[in-house]
Amino acid sequence: MKHPIITSALVLILLVALPTRAAATLLNSNSIIEDNIEYYMQTDKFVYHHGEIVDMFYSATNLGPDDVTIGWVAADPLAHYTFKVMQGNAQIWRYNYITPVLAFEPFTLGPYQSRAFQTAWNLMHNNGTPWNPDDDFPVSPGTYSAIGELNLVPFLKCDRVPVSVCLQVIPEPATIFLLALPALVLLRTRRPQRIPAEHQ
Q: 179: which of 62, 63, 107, 135 is 20 to 30 A away, CA to CA?
């Protein structure tokens, strides 16, 4: 083979990329049922490359025939939920609508009613300042937890039910090639040289 290094690099990229291709197209979801309410969290897939967007979806569904009041929320629909991304115990990103709280209202679901909320994460670390995107920076490859929950008012004795899903951020294939190339070159230079037959 004329170009063993290039061939080896292509094989390496395929070995990394192919196992994640299916995971990169399947919905990634989890749910918790508590007191006949299903709390559901979803991202549009499991594996992401840098530059992609993570679409998040969270819902609360009443599984029973009666009205259920889960708790109290700020009287603004955009403030009814919270999304955050964690890596271990470190918070990487958070969405919550910041609004002056002028009043509270009960969060009630009718029989078999579902209420859903959506947002998107751009794979950026908000550097602990979600109100200031100017100091954001791209997250490192690794495993993260995306968490959704109702933004219930804590001092009114409302128990939150956070639901999380794991997702994976991986380098682009070109990055994998650049990282693997030095190792492939080293392996190539260490290969034993063939001894011509006339010198044996």
A: 135
Q: Is residue 48 part of a domain?
A: yes
Asked if residue 181 is part of any domain, the answer here is no
Q: Could you tell me the residue range of the domain that residue 98 belongs to?
A: 27-171
178 lies in some domain: no
Angle at 130 between CA 74 and CA 169, to 5 degrees: 115
- What's the burial of 174, exposed, middle or buried (CB within 10 Å: 0-12/13-18/19+)? exposed
* CATH value at residue 99: 2.60.40.2360
Cα 118 to Cα 133: distance, rounded to the nearest angstrom? 20
The answer to whether residue 186 is domain-embedded is no
Three-state DSSP class for 15?
A: helix
Q: Tell me how crowded residue 85 is: count the other CB atoms within 10 A of its CB.
A: 24
Give the span between the Cα atoms of 146 and 167, in whole angstroms. Answer: 7
pLDDT at residue 154, as a whole number: 78
